[in-house]
Amino acid sequence: MDKISYSKRSKNMRNIPSRNTVPELFVRHLIYSMGYRYRVNVSKLPGKPDIVFSKRKKAIFVHGCFWHCHDNPICPNKHIPQSKQEYWLPKLEKTVQRDNKNLLLLKEMGWDTLIIWECQLNVKANLINILVTFLGKPR
Question: Which terminus has fewer CB within 10 Å in the chain: N or C?
């Protein structure tokens, strides 16, 4: 059972941005400080990746663990909604299906992709290693 009213919950959910989220901005600032240059939300690519390196044909998605159903069992941000499951479960499942479809389309187009999960932002050194491994040295 939800502890707040439907109208209040609805207002809260409407205020959650789809672009320029705190995790995205964190990753973008980190990448920029490492010497990489990129484009943001390129609409010509499937799924409008959050960060795009056109010359390298690499794309990064920064996923929220709840919204994109992170399947890591030790993820602290993962949970299944307890209320309105008839609404939330299909909605979240569609998001996962759309993500998988977009990743497949990008792979077919010759792009390499990386998903950075919200819970990975807690250890900056690990994230830097992941990014350098994926991107190679900055040009």
Answer: N
- Ordered per-residue pLDDT tens for the chain, 139 residues: 567 676 775 666 666 656 778 899 999 999 999 999 999 999 999 999 999 999 999 999 999 998 899 988 888 887 788 878 888 899 999 999 999 999 999 999 999 999 999 999 999 999 999 999 999 987 7
CATH-assigned architecture of domain 18-135: 3-Layer(aba) Sandwich (3.40)
Distance from C-alpha of 40 to C-alpha of 31, rounded to nearest angstrom? 12
Backbone torsions φ then ψ of 23, nearest 5 degrees: -60, -40
CA distances (Å), origin 47, targets 1, 6, 25, 53, 104: 33, 30, 18, 15, 11
Residues 59, 52 contacting (CB under 8 angstroms):
yes
The model carries a pTM of: 0.85
Residue 127 in tokens = 């994230």
